[in-house]
């Protein structure tokens, strides 16, 4: 840019000196007219430096499809409106606006370029819609504005900064039940284990709507008299079987970014359902930075898990069998381990068997590849047969929309 500017200035100086010499040595009306025109153009170009574009200021407004930027999911677009005010008085033919949206995890960026003609008050407005956003954290950088003179010789720039951060959550599918929960209520997780899901204490925890079949001893007579509708007592539960989700982040187990994104979406959907059903959860995510939520029976919140899932990547090199060995050490016996993985390795089966020896109940949610080879399909069938023979919960998902059916339930 400096070299181009120098050439332009040198060219202008040469033309000016040539015109001045033409007036001095040639004389006449023609030379004087050319020299006057050149002076007028020079004054115009020099005054363009004070066009006011350097002091531009503006505001950015963001709208989403759902109207809430705090709960954006992957695949959504955002509509951006920029309003700009340019100080000064020098006329501007047009203004070019460049907006850059950067994904903080991964370094990806989206560049948008628009233009507008300022009105008589030197104001302007542009609107654009982004491409579908991936899961991650995004940041709007400084907005650059530029303009040129009518001859396109000189460019004048300015910018304004309005920090704006976005968090795009993993895409989820809404679930209303899970076959695993129904088995827990019946107490048939496994023949050798006892479920405490439906075991209640005598401590009243609240009031709920009357369900046909409730005993008379459960009816809350005071609430029934006040509301005019049948109400039943809700008792605190003595214990709930904890579900620990294990996300496989080994990059060698996934053939592409879409397959890993599906794994993250499956985990996020199941965690949303578990929290909705008031099930205690744990979460293990082993990669370059391993995270163990709920280790040592500590409380796990939905917010901290989803915050981790926003930026999580398939960057691990630890085999799933080694991850499961660490899970067995960090979590208490009796929990239900739900593995979300694309791995169908033989050593994984041995690690799952080791979990059973520690009285942990395994389930496998396999992330299938839609373009799998016939050999992989045969291995997957063998895995499914092996899990059924060992009474392990197993399902395979190739698309997120298939998850409700694979879990034995339907969409909400």
Protein model, in words:
The protein is an alpha/beta fold. Helix content is 32%, strand content 28%. The longest helix is centred in the first third of the chain and has 24 residues, at 2-25. The protein is elongated, with a radius of gyration of 33 Å. 27% of the residues are buried.
**What would you call the shape?**
elongated
Helix/strand order, N-terminal first: HHEEEEEEEEEEHEHEEHEEHHEHEHEH
- How widely separated are the two ends? 58 Å
The radius of gyration is 33 Å
Reported for the largest beta sheet, the result is: 7 strands, mixed
Fraction of residues in helices? 25-40%
Number of strands: 18
Alpha-beta classification: alpha/beta
Q: What would you give as the CATH superfamily of the largest domain?
A: von Willebrand factor, type A domain
Work out the helix count: 10
Strand content: 25-35%
Please name the CATH architecture of the largest domain: 3-Layer(aba) Sandwich
- At CATH level 3, the topology of the largest domain is Rossmann fold
Number of domains: 4
Query: Spans of 5+ residues with little confidence (pLDDT < 50)?
Result: 187-199
Q: On the 0-100 scale, what is the average pLDDT?
A: 81
CATH class of the largest domain equals: Alpha Beta
């Amino acid at each position: 840019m400096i070299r181009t500017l120098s050439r332009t200035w040198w060219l202008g100086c040469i033309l000016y000196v040539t015109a001045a010499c033409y007036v001095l040595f040639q004389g006449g009306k023609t030379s004087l007219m050319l020299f006057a025109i050149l002076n007028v153009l020079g004054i115009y170009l020099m005054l363009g430096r004070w066009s006011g574009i350097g002091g531009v200021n503006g505001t950015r407004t963001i709208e989403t499809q759902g109207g809430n930027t705090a709960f954006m999911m992957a695949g959504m677009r955002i509509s951006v409106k920029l309003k700009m005010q340019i100080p000064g008085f020098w006329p501007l033919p047009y203004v070019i606006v460049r907006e850059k949206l950067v994904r903080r995890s991964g370094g990806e960026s989206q560049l948008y370029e628009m233009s507008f003609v300022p009105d008589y008050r030197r104001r302007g407005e542009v609107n654009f819609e982004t491409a579908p956003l991936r899961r991650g954290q995004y940041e709007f950088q400084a907005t650059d504005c530029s303009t040129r003179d009518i001859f396109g010789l000189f460019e004048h720039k300015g910018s304004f900064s309005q920090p704006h951060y976005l968090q795009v959550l993993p895409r989820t599918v809404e679930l209303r039940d899970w076959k695993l929960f129904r088995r827990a209520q019946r107490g048939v997780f496994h023949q050798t284990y006892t479920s405490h899901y439906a075991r209640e204490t005598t401590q009243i925890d609240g009031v709920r709507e009357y369900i046909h079949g409730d005993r008379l001893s459960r009816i809350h007579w005071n609430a029934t008299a006040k509301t005019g509708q049948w109400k039943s007592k809700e008792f605190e539960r003595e214990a709930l079987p904890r579900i620990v989700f294990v996300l496989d982040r080994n990059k060698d187990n996934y053939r592409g970014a879409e397959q890993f994104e599906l794994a993250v979406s499956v985990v996020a959907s199941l965690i949303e359902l578990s929290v909705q059903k008031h099930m205690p959860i744990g979460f293990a995510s082993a990669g370059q930075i391993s995270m163990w939520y709920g280790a040592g029976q500590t409380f796990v919140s939905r917010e901290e898990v989803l915050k981790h899932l926003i930026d999580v990547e398939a960057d691990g090199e630890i085999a799933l069998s080694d991850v499961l060995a660490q899970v067995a050490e960090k979590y208490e016996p009796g929990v239900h381990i739900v593995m979300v993985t694309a791995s169908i390795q033989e050593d994984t089966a041995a690690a799952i068997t080791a979990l059973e020896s520690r009285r942990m109940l395994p389930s496998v949610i396999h992330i299938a590849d839609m373009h799998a080879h016939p050999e992989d399909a045969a291995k997957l069938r063998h895995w499914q047969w092996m899990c059924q023979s060992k009474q392990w919960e197993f399902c395979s998902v190739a698309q997120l929309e298939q998850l409700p059916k694979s879990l034995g339930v339907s969409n909400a």
